Amino acid sequence: MPAPTPDLLQALCAVAGEAGREVLDVYAGAFTSRAKDDGSPVTEADLRADAVIRRGLASAFPGVFVLSEESLSSPSGPAHRFFLVDPLDGTKEFLQRNGEFTVNIALVEDGEPVAGVVLAPALGQLYWGARGLGAWRRAWGPASVGPAATALGVAPAGAGPLRALVSRSHRDERVEAWLARLPHPHTAVAAGSSLKFCRVAEGAADLYPRIGPTSQWDTAAGQCVLCCAGGAVVDFSGRPLRYDARRTGLNPDFVALGDPAWLRRLDL
How confident is the model at residue 27 (pLDDT cuts 50, 70, 90)? Predict the structure, then answer.
């Protein structure tokens, strides 16, 4: 597969859009959920979006391995290049009908997410980015591609209160304690799914700490958008989050930053 190009990003956005329409179709009616083996919920929307994404990626990028929260393909291409997919990130937000759920698709090469798309179909927001090309957002509607795109850029580290995002459905006392120890005044706002990465990428927040379990498909697309907007996603040793199609464990605890200068200013 070639390096990320605008055409590649357009193809990924189109696949995400098809999945978003499936998600909204379920969201508009009555639906139920069941618990998977790990206790997390899954709905018809997860499965329908997963099927659409898998078909779309197989058609546009034949032979590239796909690792999804809901399924995986048979490896047939290079192990160092694969797609990470969360067809419905924030299923709890979906069940609560607050709109803060997303469709996530990321292309990973040599452990790094090099292209990523995050679609929030109920909010009508589409974010995407690629290494060397930048990051953007635009309004999205199920019947159209939306208006012209706006380039994303993180907010510079300033002297005012640090704007931190915390998980809406996974609040953790360890996160609250970590924020309380920061050598900088801060405010905290709750948000759902991988939208937190995108809010930092568009300059609406400065930092998103996550202490607790996340999987690779939860973070890869959002990390790509944020890094392509000038930010960083690192573990608590300061190392960037990395990805591996053969890894079955969870991500380490991490912090997503707008301006990487926060790494020095907060002694992370």
Answer: very high
Pull the structure tokens for residue 127: 């974010």
pLDDT, residue 251, reads 96
Does this model's pTM top 0.85? Answer: yes
Of 202, 230, 36, residue with least CA distance to 125: 202
Q: How far apart are CA 215 and CA 192, in angstroms?
A: 15
**All residues at 6 or more sequence positions from 226 whose CB lies less than 8 Å from its CB, including other chains:** 129, 135, 154, 197, 198, 200, 201, 232, 233, 256, 258
Query: What domains lie within the chain, and their CATH numbers?
Result: 6-151 (3.30.540.10), 162-265 (3.40.190.80)
Q: List Cα–Cα distances, 14 to 7, 107, 176, in angstroms.
A: 10, 15, 38
pLDDT class of 132 with cuts at 50, 70, 90: very high
Q: What pLDDT, in 10s, does the model give residues 161-204?
A: 999 998 876 667 899 899 999 888 999 988 888 999 999 999 99
CA dihedral 180, 186, 187, 188 (to 10 degrees): -50
